[in-house]
Amino acid sequence: MENVFRLVDHEDYFSRRCIWVNGxxxxxxxxxxxxxxxxxxxxxxxxxxxxxxxxxxSLWQNRAYDRLKLHLPKQFCQLPNLPFPQHFPExxxxxxxxxxxxxYARHFDINPRFNECVQSARYDETSGLWRVKTLSATRTxxxxxxRWLVVATGxxxxxxxxxxxxxxxxxxxxxxxxxxxxxxxxxxxxxxxVGCGNSGMELSLDLSNHxxxxxxxxxxxxxxxxREILGRxxxxxxxxxxxxxxxxxxxxxxxxxxxxxLGNIEKYGLKRPSTGPLELKNREGKTPVLDVGTLEKIRxxxxxxxxxxxxxxxxxxxxxxxxxxxxxxxxxxxGYRSNVPSWLQENEFFSKKNGYPxxxxxxxxxxxxxxxxxxxxxxxxxxxxxxxLKIGEDIGNVWKQETRQKKQRTTACHRRCIxxx
Length: 421
Ligand SMILES: Cc1cc2nc3c(=O)[nH]c(=O)nc-3n(C[C@H](O)[C@H](O)[C@H](O)COP(=O)(O)OP(=O)(O)OC[C@H]3O[C@@H](n4cnc5c(N)ncnc54)[C@H](O)[C@@H]3O)c2cc1C
Ligand SMILES: NC(=O)C1=CN([C@@H]2O[C@H](COP(=O)(O)OP(=O)(O)OC[C@H]3O[C@@H](n4cnc5c(N)ncnc54)[C@H](OP(=O)(O)O)[C@@H]3O)[C@@H](O)[C@H]2O)C=CC1
Ligand SMILES: O=C(O)C(=O)Cc1c[nH]c2ccccc12
Hints:
By secondary structure, the chain is of the alpha/beta class. The chain folds into two domains: about 15-155 and about 340-410, FAD/NAD(P)-binding domain (3-Layer(bba) Sandwich); about 160-335, 3-Layer(bba) Sandwich (FAD/NAD(P)-binding domain). Helix content is about 30%, strand content about 20%. The chain has nine helices and 23 strands. The strands form seven sheets. It has a five-stranded mixed β-sheet, with no helix packed on it. A hairpin with a 4-residue loop joins strand 19 and strand 20 (about 325). The chain is globular and about 80 Å long. NADPH dihydro-nicotinamide-adenine-dinucleotide phosphate binds near residues 177, 194 and 200.
């Protein structure tokens, strides 16, 4: 049965569809939204998921390159209450991860409303309810009314497009990393990859594998770590050490091990930040690069490392060191940002500046008046699972308590009715 009642909104001059949702509204059907929905299902709480795209996990299905694999071992990436299939490799591919998410949604009977982009959400003090307005692909406006609002739009909701001098005059193709699928269409081309996070590094590798000539811009500094050390995942080693040792010490050990495996990488233009990799991830959300082959290509000269950009010309780029490079295309691997400030009308819980909850992990999952956030932990999928479990339990407790009270009231009422006969 559908979890809605239709109402007519009398506030406006025209009649707009207005839907009462019995249970929470979850905005976003990525891994975070799905995980929360599954945890609510587990607690017997009905919900509704609103998704702007036409499918679940749109970041993975529509905005990720072909060669993408999970970077962390599978045990850190599975969502609550349904493990990855046994036959999945240590680092599942994009396809496998999407298949898993599709089966996850089926298993927990999660059926999002697709093509519904949330335009605004505000808490109505008078009624004590959230009013969530969406615009569909057919430009129909709908207002959802609910007691709980779960924000699951993610850390990667919008692309960061840098405003670099002359970029508008550049005559070649300019795309963001989220639009890049494969190096096939860049064969033989000189491509400038702007940015050296995990995206920039892997796209440069993919371009090189397709016989393009990538130059990768490193304007500041970056931590590159081997994905594995002596056959063990670096991330797993770090997690294990963090149980016993302080973060700064784990960082020191990881950096020594990285140096033993990778050698001195500064001579290739890969300057390390002064803050350690895990502390930097914790403090600023900057993810260390887990190397999957790019370093070797940098060492061999197949991938060129260049400093920051001064400006673009029609078919060239001028770097901060004055060097000019002739280029055919630009891939902006310049990262992503949250879009929460553009639609959530609220100042207490979410920061207007960066669109993340103001309180860092593990305190950033619950706000006031039935507001929740999932997947803004700067800790990838495992952080999202952590939030989802807490939200499920929190709403589940209130739901069960109220259902019990309602049942008691109904039973009492029945008894009174019966005793009157
Ligand atoms: C290329 C890439 C690879 C990654 N690999 C890993 C990895 O291996 N391991 C790991 O732990 N983490 C990884 N991450 C981190 C990543 O953040 C998570 O994997 C994961 O996708 C986050 O899930 P999410 O649901 O929070 O966000 P998303 O997957 O971005 O999902 C959010 C959803 O909300 C929808 N949405 C946004 N705004 C609105 C709106 N206004 N109205 C309605 N719907 C809206 C979006 O369309 C989207 O479907 C990776 C990130 C990227 C970019
Ligand atoms: N397989 C996997 O698991 C993968 C995971 N990911 C994850 O997705 C998330 C996003 O990664 P990613 O897309 O790499 O984004 P990041 O935010 O990690 O990196 C953005 C990069 O762009 C640079 N940059 C931004 N603006 C400019 C500019 N104007 N000029 C030059 N450089 C610029 C930044 O430099 P600076 O540091 O100086 O600001 C930084 O190097 C991360 O969490 C990452 O780990 C991504 C790809 C693969
Ligand atoms: O958040 C990401 O983008 C990831 O790729 C996963 C991730 C979470 N925490 C980390 C710490 C070190 C390296 C990768 C990750």
